[in-house]
Automatic annotation (TrEMBL):
<keyword id="KW-0234">DNA repair</keyword>
<dbReference type="InterPro" id="IPR011257">
    <property type="entry name" value="DNA_glycosylase"/>
</dbReference>
<protein>
    <submittedName>
        <fullName>3-methyladenine DNA glycosylase</fullName>
    </submittedName>
</protein>
<dbReference type="InterPro" id="IPR051912">
    <property type="entry name" value="Alkylbase_DNA_Glycosylase/TA"/>
</dbReference>
<keyword id="KW-0227">DNA damage</keyword>
<feature type="region of interest" description="Disordered">
    <location>
        <begin position="136"/>
        <end position="163"/>
    </location>
</feature>
Length: 311
């Protein structure tokens, strides 16, 4: 397990796609449960941190795979000591939240598909699409969380809605989803076509987890429809890439510009310039800045939620 300070919610939080994500649950006792598709098959992993350290238990064909890689997922290979804060705001955030570690799942597609769903739409829309597709085309999670609305021993998740968990569909099933079902899920043809192209070469894309971040990003971006924004979002999770910066985001440059320089109109180039002192650790710097909650005042309406279909 990782040495030093450790905060489970911070480490695994990026894997959760909204409070009703059918593949991820946070329970009131602080434990996290994750249902995923490993190279060995579906698996469910429960992780709980306490005074005695971190304990994991798993179910399904992918259980051994998940337990073997649990330390990596929790940031055992991450090196937070390599980070040197260059701004007072960032230093304060690091002092307040020393348990931040960058997770490394070793799985590309489980992050790639929801990241593609998030392209050019609101997070609410993307989470709704992910939830609909996983519940309709996935399979019940192995173990006690796939068949009970309460889960193990009657414990309740922090979101009190139906907590039955699902594993995302296998690659062949993603490729076979008909166009009208994508429409029902609120996903336009551009995004569904990108996912269809990616799942056809999923095994080649999964190899990116063994590559250096630059080569891994290049591998992902060979797929039409996957650009720097999507590849960064994936590699932050699959590879634990500490320098993967999400460029092309609607809000992030303004947040970084406002937090570090008081400039809410900052663009991608300006954001990268401000983050240059953190070269090699820019993703960690962004995570810490976001944890401060320092965001520019709203000057315009939020991006409207558009639905191309009623679920």
């Amino acid at each position: 397990m990782p040495d030093g300070d450790f905060e489970l919610g911070l480490v695994l939080g990026p894997l959760r796609r909204g409070p009703a994500d059918p593949t991820f649950r946070i329970f009131q006792d602080g434990s996290a449960v994750r249902a995923t598709r490993t190279p060995e098959g579906p698996g469910t992993l429960r992780v709980r941190a306490g005074d005695g350290g971190v304990r994991g238990e798993a179910w399904g064909p992918g259980a051994d795979w998940l337990l073997e890689r649990l330390p990596e997922m929790l940031g055992a290979s991450d090196d937070p000591d390599a980070f040197v804060p260059r701004h007072r705001l960032v230093a304060a955030a690091q002092r307040r939240r020393p348990g931040l570690r960058l997770c490394r799942t070793g799985l590309v597609m489980e992050s790639l598909i929801p990241s593609v769903l998030e392209q050019k739409v609101t997070t609410i829309e993307a989470n709704r699409s992910w939830r609909h597709l996983v519940r309709k085309y996935g399979e019940p999670a192995p173990g006690p969380y796939g068949d009970s609305p309460l889960g193990r021993s009657g414990s309740r998740p922090d979101d009190r809605r139906d907590s039955r968990m699902h594993v995302m569909p296998d690659f062949r099933t993603w490729a076979m989803i008909p166009s009208w079902e994508w429409h029902k899920a609120g996903v336009d043809a551009k995004r569904s076509d990108t996912i269809a192209r990616a799942v056809r070469v999923a095994r080649r894309l999964e190899e990116a987890t063994t590559m250096e971040p630059e080569l891994a990003a290049a591998r992902l971006q060979l797929i039409p429809g996957i650009g720097p924004w999507t590849s960064a979002e994936v590699l932050q999770r699959s590879n634990g890439a500490p320098d993967a910066v999400t460029v092309g985001d609607l809000h992030l440059p303004g947040i970084i510009g406002y937090a570090l320089a008081g400039r809410p109109d900052t663009d991608d180039a300006g954001m990268l310039e401000l983050l240059e002192p953190y070269a090699g650790q820019r993703h960690r710097a962004v995570r810490l800045i976001l944890l401060t909650g320092r965001t520019p005042p709203r000057r315009a309406p939020r991006m409207p939620v558009g639905r191309i279909a009623h679920l």
